[in-house]
Amino acid sequence: MKTFLKSKEMSIVGVVLLLCITLAFVSPVFLTADNLLDVLKANSVIGILAVGMTLIIITGGIDVSVAAVTSAVCVITVKLMMIMPDHFISLLLAFLVAPLLGILLGALNGVLVSKIKIPAIVVTLGMMSIINGLVLYITNGVYLNSSNFPQIFINFANIKIFGVSIIILIFAAVAFLTWYILKYTLIGREVLAIGGNKESAVRVGINFDKVQIFVFSYMGFLAGIAAIAQTAYTKSVDPNGMLGLELMVIAAVVLGGANIMGGRGTILGTVLGVLLLGIIQNGLILAQIDPFWQKVFTGIIILLAVSFDQLQYKRSQNKLAKIEVEA
Questions:
Q1: Averaged over 215-241, what is the pLDDT?
Q2: Beta 144-145 vs 236-237: how paired, if at all?
Q3: According to its UniProt record, where is this protein located (predicted)?
Q4: pLDDT exceeds 90 at position 179
Q5: What is the DSSP string of 155-169?
Q6: Coil/strand/helix, residue 243
Q7: How far apart are CA 294 and CA 280, in angstroms?
Q8: Torsion sign over Cα 270, 272, 278, 280
Q9: pLDDT for the residue 98
């Protein structure tokens, strides 16, 4: 308990609570249940992708193609649903096809990074460009709207359990599943081992290539889940609607305490980072800040948070080094 109270996650909880109190004075609407649920719902897609990105960042990688992969899966899945009968089968097809497409695209990234040894940033930038181009070619830049969606999917998108949207519940399930994988499975422990010390992990027999393929494939799997959540949230598909979202995903992970260079990161921290990012954006909207300034303020807050985290980390490392020398 004492360890948790002193952890990075606890400091994020403190910032979130402070922001909530401040924004409650700015707008009485902020602390209403409907607004808080809207914040969670609006940021669930970012959250799903951020959870997957956490694993990649822990191992020292990066994936800037996540938004493009999600957009591609959205387009393909919706086009398949539109030619299927308005039946439970079309909904089942979406939940089968979307994750499988994501896994294939993610695994391709993983193979290029691990087997051909191309830096992850280069591979995923290339993949992002290719996929975005293909999506625009397939759709001609035209929206796919809900008028052509199967009614069963619209009904699914509107599901609420105890007043909580199915989209939020999907995010919660993804976060719990990923936390469980990291904590209780062999591959999860290998991810954490590589994050802790890659050289030592490889020396004791951990297959680094296998772990890389896994984290990119899992990222693709979650991109497929995010595609379903995104389509359910917007009830449309905008070919350009997710451009730049990968930066928000990475920002949420880093705000949650992950080291962008690898080695550190937790699922709880990432979830809190998503919540913090969502609260900041929602607060700026309620405060009626101009949309352009919203981006400026969000960027400044992210830079300050990351800088503070890095200074804290360096200070703790210096203390550890000092203790080792004295010992």
A1: 92
A2: antiparallel
A3: Cell membrane
A4: yes
A5: HHHT-EETTEEHHHH
A6: coil
A7: 9
A8: negative
A9: 94
Alpha helical stretches, state H, the chain: 2-5, 8-26, 33-42, 44-58, 66-83, 88-114, 120-139, 151-157, 166-184, 186-196, 198-203, 208-234, 245-255, 267-286, 291-326
- Contacts of residue 12, Cβ cutoff 8 Å, sequence gap at least 6: 255, 256, 257, 269, 272, 273, 276
For the cut 60, the answer to whether the pLDDT of residue 323 exceeds it is no
How far apart are the C-alpha atoms of 121 and 113, rounded to whole Å?
9
Which residues contact residue 242 at a Cβ distance below 8 angstroms, ignoring those fewer than 6 apart?
Answer: 67, 68, 70, 71, 230
Residue 166's identity, in one-letter code, is I
CA 133 to centroid of chain Cα atoms: 23
Q: Please, what is the angle between helix 120-139 and helix 88-114, to 10°?
A: 140
In degrees, rounded to 5, the angle at the alpha carbon of residue 178 between the alpha carbons of residues 174 and 181 is: 140
Nearest residue to 76 via CA among 239, 215, 229: 239
Q: Is the pLDDT of residue 53 over 80?
A: yes
pTM equals 0.92
